[in-house]
Design a protein that fits this description.
24 helices; 484 residues; mainly alpha
């Protein structure tokens, strides 16, 4: 975000030159990774630890950042009913968005029917060991399990396992309890907000290695899977990409137009996050940056803290398109005829099974298998027909999921009548704007350092004058609201 922090008198902000920005170096690393994986596959495969180490280091921060942001947002609001209504509105929007995405997928595969002529015999399809485990997990996946899964067995477990849904549950309960304590809980809230700054400081350190992580992940992907598998299933991959692009432009673009915002300006503003997703094939490393940029664009902190993490589990537009396309492709390839009514029934089941696999490794295949098992008419072993090309669609899924969550957060903020659309428009256009009141933390000197680090992350910040950094602690605004 074009983020500035005022601490006394600050010098005018200047944008970082393009060749010094993170997205340029990540994009360069991706290109180099593709070349290494293509020209030297063995060397590319050997780069896997570099990519996985970076992604794991980012995932390490996701849980604490989500927890601290949600707790800080809920504990600092005066009316908890508004938080509850925001959550209900978000879940309603998520379901509508998921339905639209699935309908897009169903229409696309019905129009082009790429599975016709494959004539696959489900009984003769060989299943690999890795796929067999996913199929088994999907066959034992019940639609209601995501409800019981939300409540963790321990407080520490979700942070160790990286289970976002359970972390959200703990954070909401903790935030409500802290809010109910009033001024007694103010020192704890102050500590929560200071810890949030620490987490983003750590984030700024890790982000310096983003180009290296993108290089390792891309070199491994190309080296291991190559480009030869694109030829046999190129039609399905192309259809998925085209359908996803149309969904972003038509559906998400229409939502942004309704908000009097431009989808392409927003995407350009989030270019650093898109480069991370493209390089790592997952949207998780981009979550912290999205939260900070949306807050700076005029969305209230509590709205961002609640909607964005929840959307990462419940608002998966890209996964929804993929599930509907894949299920109908398998049906066509195995000569399983489905009526319109059966396809709508398939969509209804997917709305539930997709939530059941949220946040689980191989969740897309587990959700697909659970859907096929529940319907009973499409052979679950048919997922082997698309198992080999899943990697080539993961980046697109993650990008659509990420874009859908950004748009969802803006829409929910508008629904709550808290969106500053004019500010968002200016921020997305690249203008330098004053920070939001909630962006002023307790330690202005710490934030100066954080902003300088995040300038490489696409957050263009001015350096503070020495006298501003020397401001005494007693003059600083408390990090908590007296009306808690």
């Amino acid at each position: 975000m074009d983020h500035i922090t005022t601490a006394g008198n600050a010098k005018p902000a200047t944008k970082t030159r393009w060749y010094k920005q993170l997205y340029f170096w990540v994009l360069t690393a991706i290109v180099i990774g593709i070349l290494v994986g293509w020209l030297a596959p063995t060397a590319g495969i050997a780069m896997e630890p570099i990519g996985t180490t970076f992604v794991n280091s980012m995932k390490m921060l996701i849980g604490p950042i989500v927890f601290l942001t949600i707790v800080g947002g809920i504990a600092s609001v005066a009316d908890l009913k508004k938080v509850g209504m925001t959550g209900l509105k978000a879940l309603t929007y998520f379901q509508i968005g998921t339905i639209c995405a699935m309908v897009f997928g169903l229409v696309a595969i019905n129009l082009f029917r790429l599975g016709d002529g494959v004539n696959a015999d489900a009984s003769s399809i060989k299943t690999s060991d890795s796929a067999a485990k996913l199929i088994d997990a999907g066959q034992h996946q019940e639609w209601w399990q995501f409800l019981t899964h939300i409540i963790p067995n321990s407080i520490v477990g979700p942070f160790v396992e990286g289970d976002i849904l359970q972390i959200i549950f703990i954070a909401v309960v903790f935030g409500i309890a802290l809010n109910a304590m009033g001024k007694v809980g103010a020192p704890v809230l102050d500590g929560i907000q200071r810890l949030t700054g620490v987490m983003f400081k750590i984030l700024s350190f890790i982000m310096k290695a983003a180009p290296l992580g993108a290089f390792g992940a891309m070199a491994f992907a190309v080296g291991k899977y190559g480009v030869s598998s694109l030829t046999s299933m190129g039609g399905l991959i192309a259809l998925f990409y085209v359908t996803s692009i149309l969904f972003i432009v038509v559906v998400l673009g229409a939502v942004m137009a309704f908000l009097k915002l431009n989808i392409f300006s927003m995407m350009r503003h989030l270019k650093e996050e898109y480069m991370l997703i493209l390089g790592t094939s997952t949207a998780e490393p981009a979550l912290p940056g999205l939260m900070r940029k949306l807050e700076h664009a005029g969305v209230k902190k509590e709205t961002v803290g609640l909607v964005v993490p929840t959307g990462y589990s419940f608002n998966l537009d890209g996964a929804a398109i993929y599930l509907s396309l894949a299920a109908l492709y398998i049906a066509q390839a195995t000569n399983t005829d489905l009526s319109i009514g059966q396809q709508l029934g398939l969509l209804a089941v997917m709305l539930l099974t997709s939530k059941g696999a949220a946040g689980v490794a191989g969740g897309g295949f587990i959700a697909l298998t659970a859907t096929l098992t529940t319907i009973g008419t499409i052979p679950a072993a048919g997922i082997m027909l698309i198992f080999g090309i899943d990697k080539f669609m993961s980046e697109c899924r993650a990008i659509v999921n990420f874009t859908g969550n950004a748009v969802a957060t803006l829409f929910i903020a508008w629904w709550d009548r808290t969106l500053d659309a004019d500010r968002a428009r200016r921020v997305f256009a690249g203008e330098i704007v004053e920070p939001m009141p909630t962006e002023d933390p307790a330690h202005t000197d710490d934030v100066a350092d954080l902003d300088e680090d995040l300038a490489e992350y696409g957050h263009h910040a001015p350096k503070h004058q020495a006298e501003a950094n020397a401001t005494s602690t007693t003059d600083r605004r408390p990090a908590y609201s007296e009306t808690v």
